[in-house]
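Lecture 7 notes: from sequence to structure.
We start with the chain below.
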Amino acid sequence: MANLLQPGVAKREVWAWAMYDFANSGYTTVVITAVFGAYFVAVVADNAAWATFAWTLALSVSYALVMLTAPLIGAWADAHASKKKWLWLTTLGCVSFTAALYFASPGALVLAIAALILSNYFFGTGENLIAAFLPELARPRALGRISGWGWALGYVGGLVSLGASLAYISGAQAAGQGAAEFVPVAMLITAAIFLVASLPTLLMLRERATPTGPHTQRNAWGQVRYTLGHLRQLPDLRRFLLCTVLYQAGIQAVITLAAIYATLVFRFDTQQTIVLVLVVNVTAALGAFAFGHVQDRIGHVRAIALTLVGWIAMVLLAWAAPDERMFWVAANLAGLCMGASQSAGRAMVGLLAPPAHQAEFFGLWGLAVKLASIIGPLTYGATSWLTAGDHRQALLITGLYFVAGLVVLRDIRAGRGRRAAHRFTLLSGHA
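Predicted structure tokens for the same chain:
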């Protein structure tokens, strides 16, 4: 394994880095996907007609805040060599505001929305920062493999947090408690697992970057303006960021609305939906782990193209599925593609980003992903509304984002992009 890692990087440090994926995945699995969303709509907002809109709007606000600040924080972290300090801040922020969801009792709408926005903001910002450590740990030829290990461990972490929460919920329900009593405790469980599981990362991961410029806020803003103004020098990275917006729009729609699709099209009940989330997390972990090795062998562009073809096939299967058996096949294919494409995208950015500006460009990547998190679900929602609730048609239209991403990906050359990244670093003079 030593020949896969950068000089001076120990295997335990790679494990510590990957543990952050394990730690933070519980937040998305429990809070965003499986537990708190339904609780927010049914209990906090009392099933009001605007409840689902309020949920999606709160998430969109948090994504927009990440979009606005991610490149600036990345540039500041590069200038100060302070990714680790920012990671401490974002971790404690997400843990604290996830725990604050404990107080989201029936009717506590303002508190619930504020805690949701802030917890999701800190989660998204931390996600960009931990990704920026990847090129410091893995050699270029092993970026896909190491990224895949992290994503695979992340899905395991999601299963652990969801399993712990559901174990408590099952006991509470057996004791006659209602959602207003056991869901808040599940938020504390999720926050605690996040904090404990992130400690190996926060204590063992080293900051290897060196400061690149004067330690002023103006320098960070100036670097962001410089980078945006000179992205034409990085045509392959620029095109990949556009590709990311497109295919991630499809992925984020699937993540956000899969449970709704299963419920409304195939009449899944709550238990079936939870089982669906658990199984898809397992297949996603397998996809991320296995495909990381494939990506390093066949090349980053070809690997991402293969996952996009898989996503297109998944959409067609789910759209045409006459019963839930074919839908289960589509869902597991989605899991495999999800783990593979998420891992492959992070590794691709690590390959194409200029070496002296990793945090900044992973901030731009985060911006692209968060923009997609707004566009994809809104496209699905608008289509389902315009088609009078035809969710099959909404899924098919949203699936066009994968086709568009595949078209944009066609003209990207990883080797050419890597050479341009090194030239960019030399020409910018670490500006």
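Points to note: The two ends are 35 Å apart (CA to CA). The chain has 17 helices and no strands.
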